[in-house]
Design a protein that fits this description.
Distance between the termini: 27 Å
Number of helices: 33
Shape: globular
Helix content: 40-55%
Strand content: 15-25%
Radius of gyration: 35 Å
Number of domains: 6
CATH class of the largest domain: Alpha Beta
Largest sheet: 7 strands, parallel
Structural class: alpha/beta
CATH superfamily of the largest domain: P-loop containing nucleotide triphosphate hydrolases
CATH topology of the largest domain: Rossmann fold
């Protein structure tokens, strides 16, 4: 290299510094000043990572005085260049010394970088090419948005997510029974809406007790970072500012939303795409006196396009409130309760006809007439005849008739309800109750408390005697005499391999238990309670989930029954019993989940003749709530809960009054359970579960999970970006930043690193691991990082092929055809960013269709920097001509790609529109706005696709060597 003052050079390793100027040459060193950034660098002349910047006739180059010239002549004066040409703005002929070039010049275009010696390693180029190909595949994948959740592949959940998530502005009621995963369904829908671009801003409103659960579920399962807004946060903003303008994903509690007029107005003034409301049955309504909470959600629902309501309470336990929830989804459609009741009678005919067909019962003449009226004007006489035909004919006819009835089902499009009657895969639950003698210290403080305290103070303490005992200062510790501690120690020592989850009401109980187990028996335990940060809880959960050097027992306060999935364990200890049967189900639900591989043992050590024995009696003998999900629990609790508490506060734990409460509770439970079973809408359940079609969706996702494409791609990406990678023993990789990374801001990689896995089961067992899928923000973010920069867009390779003369060369150019459009139009479904490859020989012939890309790539090897520079210098005069030829070849292909994309779009949207129009003719729950959106989408996509742009993405010079 020869350096002279005033020459312009560019850094091979820091091209973002812009154009540098030689300001000093002393001995073995050269100093370059980068005026664009104000920084200077000193390099050893012998191996300086620099490339001389020169231009040729025909190039358009910018001056630092904000004009450009088209070069017509190049003069060399010693070691400096002067460019002569016409100004592009005035047409005047001027000369421009290289010192006067624009300091901010960056060579981002692939051929400019190549011609100026700014080429990348061969593996960088391969990574860019792979990124383009995978981006192309994922933009049109039907699985986009469904892959990324850290969830088990459960058919009914994925069916609902796929069915609802692909709609424009979905408005639905998710009403699955407890334990069937409504929160996961909602999360999948939200995730799909966001990933697909159908939604950008989401507002979630939940009861305050569920705030943490939703925050954790959205973050840990779907990588969605919701921001909690409460009064304290809102006060941080200046007067006049709308706090809710600062975030896209917002989580608020219903009480804050409905009792803070100023902040509710701020929320209502924002543009949201999707509103999600959990525990929607708490929104009390009547035609004359709707609750404040209901009115607030009603106002929001009228202005937010998409609405998801979640409730586990079936409509049979409050039919008017069921109507009120449907009214929130479509107030025009459900405007009057008496009218709804009248219309519902026809729904019952649909359900009865479906039940008869499903049960393969002989249809009466009256049922046949009803069926024909329901599907009129369609002629179903042939299908009815086939119901009495062969097995094959009967099955085909049954499926066809059920499909017609589903289309006509009154609320089947906006209501999804699965029950444990139709969804299989749940474990059995076994109650292992152990009666223990009430210790004398507890007996004394409980007797004292009942006789001296007021009702309000007594009710919550009686059921947790260890807390009651320490309300007064004591010398001894409750764990020293409480027989439940010894019971727990014996259980843990019976099999040290058992993973045991212990749940109790209070954090202090959990902490005292951990200390007792550790000190007395050396048992490893982790504590999990509300006083810990989310990070600390994650660490405790991970310590429990590990298989080696792990905690045998996780001791949780009540918060442990919310939001976490510990289904790798199947031993549950209820150290005390909650006073609400819904909370009991939440506790058991940490282990009783679809995907649990073992039957669940529910250990309940309780004190005989105590409030706990009374609760056990009520839950087990009246509600059967331990060994089966009690769907009537809320209604029974509302009817008899106060009576149970009153008896407890009077010290009446076993007498005739309690017997009457137990009998009344059991009678109501059985009555409601019978009504629920009689009222089961099997047609609705079939629609909600996906009729088995969801199994195909599960199979596709499972196949994608097993593919090695993503791991291979991400490993090469980690290598190129310079991340440290350490294999873990459990199908996981620990990633940490290194000192030589390409960027210090690698997506989703904190300073202290993170652990990732490609295995779904591993991710489900380790909540602090990231499950990498094509939807994961680390994957999509890294891909964007590559394709938005010049990483790998220019490269040189050597080809060893004895059949070709040494010195033969090829130029490979990769272009992309893409259309810019708002995300909600989903142009990628029809015209994804499409890579177009051209492989030219020196005559400009395109060999891409004749040479196998994979075989060709396999014969290539990298080139050293100096050799590459020599090759560029030797072929510099021919490369620009070949780049022009490449674009000409590509333009020929563009028109056919555009026409194919438009045809695909028209066919797809026409079919979708015709299906919805036909459905709207028989089912009023198809909204006109859905039909209008498809028509508008079609018009806008026509324009967008017609104006698709061709972008030059990458170039590779390939030279045959020995």
């Amino acid at each position: 290299m020869t350096f002279s003052l005033g020459q312009r050079w560019i850094s091979d390793s820091e091209s973002d510094q812009g154009l540098g100027t030689v300001v000093d040459v002393s001995g073995r060193f050269v100093t370059i000043l980068y005026t664009a950034t104000g920084e200077s660098r000193q390099y050893a002349i012998k191996d300086a990572p620099l490339t001389r910047v020169t231009f040729a006739v025909g190039d358009v180059i910018p001056s630092h005085e904000n004009f450009s010239i088209t070069v017509s002549q190049v003069q060399i004066d010693g070691d400096l260049y002067t460019y002569i040409g016409e100004r592009t703005d005035t047409g005047d002929v001027v000369s421009l010394k290289e010192m006067m070039l624009d300091h901010f010049i960056k060579f981002n275009k692939p051929h400019d970088r190549l011609l100026n010696g700014q080429f990348d390693r061969l593996d960088w180029y391969q990574l860019r090419k792979s990124s383009l190909q995978y981006q192309f595949q994922q933009q049109q994948s039907e699985l986009t948005g469904l892959l990324g959740g850290r969830v088990s592949l459960i058919p009914h959940q994925l069916h609902i997510a796929e069915e609802v998530g692909k709609r424009y502005a979905p408005r639905v009621l998710l009403a699955d029974e407890v334990g069937l995963g409504k929160t996961i369904e909602a999360g999948l829908i939200i995730h799909q809406q966001l990933v697909s671009g159908r939604a950008q801003r989401v507002l979630i409103a939940v009861p305050e007790s569920l705030m943490h659960q939703w925050l954790v579920e959205m973050l840990r399962r779907f990588n969605l970072k919701f921001s909690i807004f409460d009064e304290e946060r809102c006060q941080q903003y200046e007067a006049g500012d709308n706090p809710f303008s600062s975030e896209q994903l917002v989580l608020v509690n219903l009480n804050f939303l409905s009792h803070n007029a100023e902040q509710f107005e701020n929320i209502a003034n924002e543009d949201w795409d999707l509103l999600v409301v959990d525990e929607a049955h708490h929104l009390e309504w009547s035609a004359t006196e709707p609750s404040l909470e209901y009115q607030c959600i009603d106002i929001l629902a009228q202005n937010i396009p998409g609405v998801l309501l979640l409730t586990a309470t079936p409509d049979q336990l409050g039919h008017e409130s069921h109507f009120a929830r449907l009214r929130l989804l479509d107030s025009n459609r459900f405007y009057d309760y008496p009218a709804f009741l009248e219309e519902e009678k026809s729904y019952q005919h649909v359900a009865q006809a479906a039940n008869s067909i499903l049960a393969e019962q002989h249809l009466s003449e009256q049922q046949t007439q009803v069926l024909q009226q329901l599907v009129a004007p369609t002629d179903i006489s042939t299908l009815l005849a086939q119901l009495n035909g062969s097995d094959e004919q009967r099955n085909e006819a049954k499926q066809a008739l059920i499909a017609m009835l589903l289309d006509r089902h009154g609320t089947g499009r906006i209501l999804f309800r699965n029950s444990r009657n139709t969804i299989k895969g749940f474990p059995k639950r076994q109650l292992l109750a152990k009666a223990l003698e009430l210790p004398e210290p507890y007996d004394e403080v409980m007797t004292d408390w009942i006789s001296q305290r007021t009702e309000s103070a007594a009710v919550n303490s009686l059921f947790t005697p260890e807390i009651l005992y320490h309300l007064e200062p004591r010398q001894d510790n409750w764990s020293d005499f409480d027989p439940r501690v010894e019971y727990l120690i014996e259980l843990l020592n019976s099999d040290r391999q058992l993973k045991v989850l212990v749940i109790c009401a209070h954090a202090q109980t959990a902490k005292d238990l951990e200390q007792a187990l550790r000190v007395r028996e050396g048992i490893r335990g982790a504590v999990f309670h509300e006083g810990m940060s989310i990070f600390e809880r994650d660490r405790a959960a991970a310590y429990f989930a590990q298989t080696e050097e792990a905690a045998q027992v996780l001791l949780c306060s009540e918060i442990g029954s919310e939001g976490r999935n510990f289904q790798f364990a199947h031993q549950l200890v209820l150290f005390d019993l909650p006073t609400n049967p819904d909370l009991l189900e939440q506790r058991i639900g940490r282990l009783d989940r679809i995907g649990q591989q073992h039957d669940i043992s529910i250990h309940v050590p309780y004190f005989d003749q105590s409030p706990q024995s009374m609760l056990l009696n009520w839950y087990h003998n009246a509600l059967d709530a331990f060994e089966h999900t009690c769907v009537t629990a809320r209604a029974v609790y509302e009817e008899f809960g106060d009576q149970v508490y009153q008896l407890a506060m009077q010290g009446i734990w076993q007498d005739e009054a309690l017997v009457n409460v137990l009998k009344g509770s059991k009678d109501l439970h059985l009555k409601l359970k019978h009504e629920l079973e009689q009222g089961r809408d099997k047609l609705l359940e079939i629609n909600s579960s996906g009729q088995g079609a969801a199994n195909a969706l599960v199979a596709k996702i499972a196949e994608q999970d097993q593919s090695f494409d993503l791991p291979a791609y991400m490993f090469s990406l980690f290598d190129v970006f310079g991340l440290n990678q350490d294999d873990r023993s459990d199908n996981a990789i620990a990633l940490t930043p290194s000192e030589h990374m390409l960027t210090s801001n690698f997506p989703m990689l904190p300073e202290d690193g993170t652990t990732v896995t490609f295995d779904r089961d591993t991710a489900l067992s380790n909540e602090d691991y990231h499950l990498l899928t094509w939807d994961h923000p680390m994957v999509t973010g890294a891909m964007d990082l590559i394709l938005s920069d010049d990483i790998g867009n220019a490269s040189i390779a050597l080809l060893k092929n004895p059949a070709l003369p040494v010195g033969t060369f090829f130029v490979e150019c990769i272009y992309t055809l893409s259309a810019m459009a708002p995300a909600q139009l989903q142009v990628g479904r029809y015209l994804p960013t499409t890579p177009v490859r051209v492989l030219l020989d020196k005559q400009g012939n395109d060999l891409a269709s004749k040479v196998s890309e994979s075989a060709f790539d396999g014969q290539l090897s990298p080139v050293k920097k100096q050799v590459g520079l020599q090759l560029v210098k030797a072929l510099k005069g021919q490369i620009p001509m070949l780049v022009d030829k490449a674009e000409q070849h590509t333009q020929i292909k563009v028109r056919s790609l555009i026409e194919e994309a438009k045809a695909k779009m028209h066919n797809s949207l026409r079919d979708e529109l015709e299906r919805l129009q036909a459905l709207a003719a028989v089912n009023p729950n198809v909204r006109q706005s859905e039909l209008d959106f498809i028509e508008l989408q079609q018009q806008q996509l026509d324009h967008v696709i017609d104006h698709a742009q061709l972008n030059f993405e990458a170039i590779r010079l390939i030279v045959v060597s020995q």
